[in-house]
Structure formats: structure tokens, C-alpha cells
Design goal:
This protein is of the alpha+beta class. It has 17 helices and four strands. Helix 8 packs parallel to helix 11, helix 10 crosses helix 12 and helix 15 packs antiparallel against helix 16.
Length: 320
Amino acid sequence: MPKKPKHDQLFKRIMGNEIAAQEFLEYYLPSNFKEKLDLSKIKVEKESYIEESLRRKYSDIVYSVSTKNKETAFIYILLDHQSTSDYWMALRLWKYTLLLCERHKKNNDKLPLIYPMIMYNGVEEYSAPRNIWELFTDPMQAKELMVSDYQLVDLQSMSDDEIVQQKHLGMMSYVMKHIHQRDMLKLWEEFLRRFKLEVLIDKENGYIYLESFLWYTDAKLPEEQQSELEQVLAKYLSEEEQVNIMRTIAQKYIEEGEFRGIQIGEARGIQIGETRGMQIGEAKGKYEVAKNMFSNNYSIPEISRITGLSIQEINNLLKS
């Protein structure tokens, strides 16, 4: 006994015919969009945008048509053949439309016009929201936020004085604006000169910005300039501030098992009067640090001195 054809296959079979497609679109397209199109030539696109898991619930057909100014537009028709309407249909249509845009952008610098349609032949009254905004808790606000131009924070268009007016936040904005500057020491000099009061605020907030800036600088600054940076810091920061910052950075590196934390904690911390040896020895990442140091050709006595581990502990660690 032959299988009965599914109604979505029936729809695609009919709508794949150019005459039927023209009649359908002539009747249902809004006039302000239709007047831009040349419906004499319609092409059925092969690709489907529906997720595999939903193929049994929906089918789709995509037409590409020429506009009267020789550009390409698309008409996306989704056949909803469920017995009940899908509450999230507006969101699905957005997703499928964006996938169509994603495909089209590969060889173009402008996106085409896309008109989404739903053909529903379920048995119950169609009650799903007709636009994506109705799905949000605040439809008007959602539409304003998502349709308006996105906000651009263009740091290069701001003067340094304008950025300083941002107070504590300005610390990040200033560094990000000048992050491409080659002379990191000069950047630090200017930064600390402009944000003297904000450094105190940053201290109260656990060095949100200074800690990250020093971490970034450490990766960019040649080893021979490290002492110069410390001189710059000493010029603008109190000894207590220097100690607190270095302790915070060193501890974070150690906990992450980073060898670089040892260099910061030992080389810098000792130079500014911080007794980091005992703190490092108590850090939970000291075993990982010891292994990293050994792989970088540090001697066992040096590893012992810096990490606080005994030589016996180190030997046992290396054996294991």
C-alpha cells in the first residue's frame, strides 16, 4: 500500500512551481514591498534553515527574487503544520532570517531585503505573538534597544581630559585608549600622574584596575625595564600601596600555577620590602610552581629558597 503524501510535501510541490509562487506572492505580499520586486522571475533556494529536531513540525521554502533596481531580495515562508500554534514562532523566524543573512554576507557587503511569512494550517486558532517584541517583558523598551543603533564607546574620539572626568572608570578607559603605545613606561608615568586620587579609590576596591594593568604590562615589558617600572611606581605610589599590589598579583599567579607569579613575588616583592618567601611557601600552588621552576632549569636550592619547600619535599615531588 503506497504511503500517503504529507501536506508539507504538497505545499512545497505546489509552491515550487513558478506560476503558483507568483500568484501566491502577488496576493499576499504587502504592496509597499511588492512594488520594489520583479516577480516575473522567481528562484526557489535549495537550503533549509530549520533545526533538524524541528523538521517534523515545520517545513520552509525560500524564494530569491530580483528587485527593480537589480538587487536580490528573499521571501522566507515557513509552513507551520502543527495542530497548535508555536508561542516562540517569532523568535524562530528571527533566527532563521539571521541564518539567511549569515549565508548571504559571505560574498557581499550589504544584506538583502528579507520578508518572513508564516503559512499556518493547524486546526486550532492561531494565537502566537506576531512579532518578537511581544515575547519580551517590556516590548517597547526591547524594540528601542534592539532596533536603534548600537552604542559606540569610541575611546579615540575622547580627549584624555574627558576620560579623566570618568573618575575611577576612567582608569580603564585611559589605558585601553593608549594600549597600543609602544613605550609602556611612558604610559604608566602619564597614567599615574593623571589618576592620583583614583588610585586611592582603586585601593579601597581591591586594586581592580591597577592589578590588571600590571599583569598586562608584565607580559609586554622587557625584563631589563622591570626595574624602571618599579621606579615609576615608587614615584607615585606609597610603599604600602606597592606592597599590597605586588602581594595581590603574586598570590593570583601562584594560585593559577603560573611560574611568572614567582618572579613577581620574589624579584619585585623583595625589592619593595615585601617578605614574599614565607607567603609563597604557604600558597596552595607551591607544588605546581616548584615543578615549573625545575622545568626552567632552576636549581633545587633555589626552588627551596623561593617556594619554602624543603629539599626533601622537592626531591619527593620530582620523583613522583
